[in-house]
Amino acid sequence: MIPRLVAQRLVYHVDVTTITTPAAAEVFAFDNTYARDLDGLYVPWKAAQVHEPRLVKLNHALAEELGLDAQALDTPAGALIFSGNKLPEGTVTIAQAYAGHQFGGFSPQLGDGRALLLGEVIDKQGKRRDIAFKGSGRTPFSRGGDGKAALGPVLREYLIGEAMHVLGIPTTRALAAVTTGEVVRRERNLPGAVLTRVAASHIRVGTFQFVTARGDDATLRKLADYVIERHYPELQGQADPCFGLLRALSERQAELIARWMNVGFIHGVMNTDNMTLSGETIDYGPCAFMDHYHPATVFSSIDEHGRYAYANQPPIANWNLARFAEALLPLLTEESSGDQDKAVERAMAILGTFQERYEQCWLGGMRRKLGLTREQDDDFALATDFLKAMEGQGVDFTQAFRRLADTAEAADASREGWLRKLYANDAALDAWLPRWRMRINAEAVAPAQRAQAMRAVNPVYIPRNHRVEEALAAAVNRGDYAPFEKLLAVLQRPFDEHMALSAYADPAPASESAGYQTFCGT
Ligand code: AMP
Ligand code: MG
Questions:
Q1: pTM for this entry
Q2: CB within 8 Å of 427: residues ≥ 6 apart
Q3: Would you kindly state where each structural domain of the chain is located, as residue ranges?
Q4: Ligand 2 midpoint to CA 101 (Å)
């Protein structure tokens, strides 16, 4: 009988004994400042050996950005490297320590329970990037966990990270996905996998909390200096650099969350150990893009009280920043001549600016989404009221902006039909459209040009929940990576609409989207 061939990319069966890996310097040119400078914040640890590593995806574009030889890595030797089975000679892997508030409760010790840092490389643009594993086995920080990752969540992190990146949102990214040939036990048995993740760094608010919880002021100082040098070099040599750090992180996070909100992204698990000092989005666990607009949207099965609901993301980010300020307090007090009350007061003043900064960033994004080129006082109300008009009307968030761009093709109401069709009841939209129309017509921009500008910032294609699930299910259940590859390809060009791809633009039918839940499950 002829074996059944599945339309999927080739995977490699690897005979570990016959493949040699070169020295780390030849493959990655690691320069490991974290391990060198931050003693006490990690333990050297080795990845578990896996049974049968197969490279199911290599991110060629990212590999090239990092100055790696993508061709040489998209091979059995690459499968060995990205499974951790045979790392380049001289690679010293470490598990990073951190703490964190999880759903509001403090855990003094979390750390890399299923992750390892391989090292840092300087990319082609001169930026330092971490390369790390997720799913590489138990470490001293694993607590009750198995240290493993399942294939579905690994591919999910790959897809959503790439989608975010293409949308211009700061994010960690996936470099490679490897299946291990092993079974991971979750609610059911699942194929195991290892993700290789690239990040500006893996330092989290929880890293600072880990140090402060131990009362180790000397290490706290080293950590703050390290973060300033790596992520905020402009603060070096300035007065009160730790206050500067609090302010700068607050600004970066305000910008990041505003970008999430502008595309309808819901992170799902904004614990302080999942907030980076770099300002990148990290840890795509139970995240999802909102389909029907509602501020209270929650997808994560473990977020029972909606702590991390869509509209809660800005105040939660601010809450996390307050925890960061607490962790920094010994250093902030030093910068306030030893007066802790003064330090608290100054930190509070900085935290108090978050909301305004966030709103500015959010409104900047909304102006672009609504096609406004000038700033006017009532823009905030105009933007907010567009969202309010969607509420309760079953309107798809992403499509509403895209159809609004279509209406901008005409200076009058003649192109409004497709937009109106999205609304169960368009009475509120009826009241809003003339306000918007008056506002844009007061600007000297040709309708076609405005529509084009709006289409360049309002995606047609986002990782639709049902499409993501479909791609993961095909890979996990049938070893068929074609839907994953296709979805990834569609998400690479989110702004160019193609009729043939309409199935990727549509939200799931109501029957499928009702009660859609995501799971941490990595
Ligand atoms: P996360 O929910 O991915 O942000 O992870 C929170 C903490 O739980 C981190 O310290 C992880 O390393 C740890 N963790 C999550 N899953 C596992 C697992 N399967 N085995 C060991 N540790 C885990
Ligand atoms: Mg995490």
A1: 0.95
A2: none
A3: 22-202, 209-356, 371-522
A4: 11
